[in-house]
Amino acid sequence: MSVKIQTVAKAIPPYTRSTAEILPFLDIWLAGQEDRFIRKVKKIFENAGVDKRYSIMGPEEVFTKTSFEEKNNIYMREAIVLGRRCMQSALDKAGLKGTDIDYIITVSCTGIMIPSLDAYLINELQLRQDITRLPVTEMGCAAGVSGIIYAKKMLEANPGKRAAVIAVESPTATFQLEDYSMANVVSAAIFGDGAACVILSSHGEDNGPEIIAEEMYHFYDADYLMGFHLSNTGLKMVLDIEVPEKIESHFGDIVHPFLAKNNLTIAEVDHLIFHPGGKKIINLVEELFRNMGKKLDDTKEILRLYGNMSSVTVLYVLERFMEKPLPKGDKGLMLSFGPGFSAQRILLQW
Known about the structure:
Number of domains: 2
CATH architecture of the largest domain: 3-Layer(aba) Sandwich
Number of helices: 11
């Protein structure tokens, strides 16, 4: 059963600042710290490869001491707004109504909502009362691709159906004002907020790139690399310095056997739809691909324009490829990494 990605649409939060505009707020946040440390933090922001980012709140709110409850309430309110906007936009792009969707999968890791976002979207967009819901949490940056994998499995078993995957993230809601660790600094420097919706279809007449194959890859004994620690002040970022090294050591095992199962080599893949986890990881992967003539220009551009929006980011990269007039038969490799530690892979054919 053929499953295709019919459309992708994004929703951008209301607040935006360039990195240059954020630097004065760092002076306020870092007041009282050693000058050497302040210079180091500013250099991390300036060299992160992020020119601009969007947020569900202004920087004044981000850098104000508030409780976990207050920040999470903002996250809940804005997640519903962004989720509705990106799903409506995706439906409009595809020429569909809300009642045309059979499965709804929502992914997020930067706040806590019970009921989950999908329940609110059913009400907001008057989706079908018999729609099947799947909220996906705690998978971090990998969840955008994970959600597509789950949707593909559902549609593969159910011809003539459609699924919507909605990713909404607000890493700025997890910023810890009194945490001066490198994990908190680096995450503040690279992350931004955003939302995206992907509509998939197992209707034979629908257009879009076909999902040829999909797989997850799980690293053993690497759960310490990335995640969140739930503290009294909120979700505290866990981000180990070993992440790029671990990805490099496993990269061949992640990519080549997966492609070989589909009788392909990396040289035969036309497009890399790669999650922009950060400048270091992008440079690492680009170096690994350099001899094969592969580039990550779209990935770098999304990082520059929006920052890393966790699960959402790779979907912004995918949207760029969906908007290009790509030749029939072109193949694309989607790849993202997340807590666990894990890698998620999807092979597309236009």
